[in-house]
Amino acid sequence: MSRPVISVIIPVYNDEKRILECVDSIFNQRTSSFSLEVIVVDNGSTDNTFSVAKNELLPKYENLRVEQCLSPGSYAARNHGLSVCKGEYTAFTDSDCKVSTDWLEHHLSLMKKQEGDCIIAGEVNFFAEASKSTEQSALDFESMFSMKQLENANNGKSITANFFCRKRIFDRHGLFDASLMSGGDVEMSQRVVRNGGKVVYCADAYVLHPARNVAELIKKRKRIVGGNWDSSLKLSRFSKKCAFLIRLFMTFLGRSKKVLKNRSLSAKRKAKLIVLLLKIMTVSYLELFKLMMGKSANRQ
Question: Residues 122, 162: contact at Cβ < 8 Å?
Answer without folding.
Answer: yes
